[in-house]
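Question (not urgent): is this output format expected?
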Amino acid sequence: MTPSIANLVSVLDDLRSRTDQIRVDGLINLVRRIPGSEMFNVDLLKNAYENNDTIKNMIRNISDDDSGVKYVHLKSLEGSEDQLPSDEPSNDDFGSGRNPEQTVSSMAKRAAKKRS
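Got this back:
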C-alpha cells in the first residue's frame, strides 16, 4: 500500500467516526496535508475506490449532488448507532462542526504517531 493510500485509509477511518459524507475536494485536501501524500488527487481516490478492498469497505459511494459537487459517502463504523444516513450533503467540507485546522492537525498527529 502506497503512503498516499495508507494516509487515505487513516483519514477515512477518522472521518467515519464523525460523519457519513465529505466533499471530494475536502477529502483530497485532508489527505494532501499529511506528509507523503502531497500529490494525492481525485484520480488516485477513484482508483483506490475501484481497486482497493480496504477503501471499498470504507466508502459506500462517490456521487454528485444536485449542484454537481462530488461527495464521498462513507460506510458507517460497525456497531455505531449515531451515524444515520443523510439525504442532504453537508455544506461543511470536513463534515463536522469542528474547526478544519484542528481536524487536520489532530489527524496529522495521529498519522505521524502511526509512522513512528
